[in-house]
Amino acid sequence: MINTIYRLVSPKQFEVTYQEVDLNERQVMVRPTHLSICKADQRYYLGDRDPEILNEKLPMALIHEGIGEVVYDPTGNFQVGDLVVLIPNIPQEEDDFISENYLDSSQFRSSGFDGYLQEYVATSPDRIVKLPSSLNPEVAAFTELISVCLHSICRLEKVSHPHGKVVGVWGDGNVGFITSLLLKTIYPHKKVIVFGKNLERMSYFTFADQVYTINQIPPGLTIDEAFECVGGIKSQSAIEQIIEHLSPEGVISLLGVSEYHIPINTRLILEKGLFLYGSSRSGRVDFERVLDIFQKHPLILSYLEELVIEKVRIRKIEDIKEAFERDVSADLGKVILIWDK
Questions:
Q1: Within this chain, do residues 115 and 166 fall inside the same structural domain, yes or no?
Q2: What is d(CA 69, CA 74) in angstroms, rounded to the nearest whole number?
Q3: CA distance 31 to 48
Q4: Whose CA is closest to 87, among 18, 170, 151?
Q5: Which residue, 6, 65, 216, 263, has most beta carbons within 10 Å?
């Protein structure tokens, strides 16, 4: 069959290409229905990557957050019409110790090969997970981002100490919102404090125990565990504040992505005996955990629905560009692309 693919060929320039898809007994065909734009997609769209990287990666179909409808499954794992969430991480091997998202051999959609901006996606059955019919598809569209935040929290459990009672989240964007919401949902007994810069954005964090602007943190405030969700050059000042306010043998989880080299106060890290770890992407197990949380804690969905700020119906290539332009101007929240049949 012939598949239509919408590839970014240069910053802000999409082109339509057509590709023959081999229908075989090992792959499921999924038609994307709802997609979500990520900051990584925006960096490609705006050209905010090293020119060498852009030359290497483009042309490429963007977007790695999305759900779709099964249209063909010779494997027998799904029924035609099933709504599924798409997993962009494509492992090439298994390892007893290293998670699939950290294996050097793993591939990732919209970073090295085509993402979900295409009419149909051919995928192995282990790279999709069936969604409950009652789940809001607009929220389900950014399950991947939620799974990344949850992955970082699950890794915290390996290094945190039992007496940790106060968690600080630096960042008032989407990652900070989702991470702090998950923390309060999973650990209701812990005190979750959000540190941000924009008071208007921080007004949405109604589930947090406390919120502080980064220039009005009370003297003497200490936290036991911290999540850095800022990214970019501003992650430097965020990490500095975290190290300053973290209690001895506290834990720092780094989630923010930066194109810059960020200096870190290693002297204070050594003096306090701090644990620091980074998290990136996620795997199938994290997607399954997210759906389990949705089922056990349905209230979380009402908060996540607040992040859906724009819905753009995609009928032609110009609509894709319109969606990306709207996302550029978005302060907080997700732009959802609704693939028109």
A1: no
A2: 15
A3: 30
A4: 151
A5: 65
